UniProtKB/TrEMBL annotation:
Record-level GO cellular component terms: cytosol; endocytic vesicle
Gene Ontology biological process terms in this record: vesicle-mediated transport
Domain of life: Eukaryota
Name of the protein: Vacuolar protein sorting-associated protein 9A-like isoform X3
Short name of one Pfam family: VPS9
Length: 372
């Protein structure tokens, strides 16, 4: 059983113990207080800072009530703590949709961070982050990534925090073991650069606001702070943050953006392809091993009126990709010493051919439907 699974099992035991006590008739007043808080919270206007304060104050109130309750008479500190963990999980599971990533600004930041990591992944290498070869243990990094990627499988702040701790422990152990064997000092926050965890900003904010404050100490606080630092490192990352020439960094980012845009266009094209017929399969041909374009081998007489919308879409696709490629190729590079890439030729011929085919289709359509 892996670390996260073990922690999840332990959390489930605590949670069901808490629910068992809440089913006891003697806990009726506690149950009423909990349900009343949840209902009133859900009907209030979202305000993350005020919401956090309300939740933390309710935890404190319930903590005092549970400590004095007969059902917990003689309970050990661990048993009492388990009940409080169960309470946090119950409350925050019920309020999750009302408290997690509810701000458009948070959603925007999540998207920006995810897109930036995606772009960086296409060209950054460990040496650019000053990660030496003795720390480039692929198995350990993949295991750490796996733990962090689980974060959205949970709703309770405690369980989300444990995903972070599991990830950071793996990386920290790698750094510690490698440093001891190679006699090197430990790495910094940039060594915790994550693969691309989902909704990184919103998850960190959610944990910070709604994890019981008395639990954000010691080891949890240390690892949480490490990931917050890693997030800040990503947001601010530029060529100066890396062992990389500024021109090389900008070229890498531009190429990654272009590739991402092309991939998005291809995905959209695949989703909106309205031509399932076997006739059009013979009209497709590979271009640069990347895109499939119908009509490439077609003759004007083979096209039908129904092909107009599809052809127009492909025309726009070609122009968009060509324009993006030209901007990337023509970008000035004052320090480049090698020969510039040649500007693609034949654009006008391609566009004229497409325009000619489109005109023929329009004329054919006019003949078929003269009244329109």
């Amino acid at each position: 059983m892996d670390t996260a699974a073990s922690q999840s099992s332990s959390s489930s035991i605590m949670f069901y113990d808490f629910l068992d006590k809440m089913r006891n008739p003697a806990s009726l007043n506690l149950v009423k207080s909990i349900k009343s808080f949840i209902v009133s919270f859900q009907f209030s206007s979202p305000n993350p800072e005020n919401d956090s304060k309300r939740v933390q104050e309710f935890f404190s109130t319930m903590e005092a009530a549970i400590m004095e309750h007969p059902l917990w008479a003689g309970a050990t500190d661990d048993e009492f703590d388990c009940s409080m963990e169960g309470l946090e999980k119950y409350i925050m599971t019920k309020l999750f949709s009302r408290t997690f990533a509810i701000s458009p600004e948070d959603v925007k930041i999540d998207q920006e961070i995810s897109e930036k990591i995606h772009l960086l992944q296409s060209f950054l290498r460990p040496e650019h982050l000053d990660i030496p070869p003795f720390l480039q243990n692929e198995a350990s990094w993949l295991l750490a990534e796996k733990e962090l990627q689980k974060i959205n499988a949970f709703r309770a702040p405690r369980e989300k925090l444990h995903c972070i701790m599991s990830c950071c422990r793996i990386i920290n152990n790698l750094l510690l073991n490698a440093s001891m064997s190679e006699n090197h000092v430990l790495g910094g926050a940039d060594d915790f650069l994550p693969a691309n965890p989902p909704q990184l900003h919103s998850n960190l904010k959610y944990i910070q606001l709604y994890r019981r404050q008395e639990k954000m100490i010691s080891e949890p606080a240390y690892y949480f702070t490490n990931l917050v630092s890693a997030k800040s490192f990503i947001v601010q990352l530029d060529a100066k943050s890396l062992s990389m020439d500024e021109i090389e960094f900008e070229e890498g980012m531009q190429a990654a953006k272009l590739d991402s845009k092309v991939s998005q266009l291809e995905a959209l094209q695949a989703q909106t392809d309205p031509i399932p017929s076997t006739r059009m399969h013979g009209m497709k041909s590979k271009i640069d091993g990347r895109s499939n374009y119908p009509y490439m081998e077609a003759e004007p007489g083979e096209l039908t009126v129904e092909d107009v919308e599809r052809l127009l879409s492909l025309y726009k696709d070609v122009v968009t990709k060509y324009s993006s490629l030209c901007r990337a190729v023509r970008r000035p590079s004052a320090t480049r010493t090698g020969p510039s890439l040649p500007i693609p030729k034949g654009r006008d011929d391609i566009l004229l051919q497409l325009e000619g085919q489109a005109q023929m289709i329009r004329e054919e359509k006019a003949e078929i439907n003269p009244g329109r």
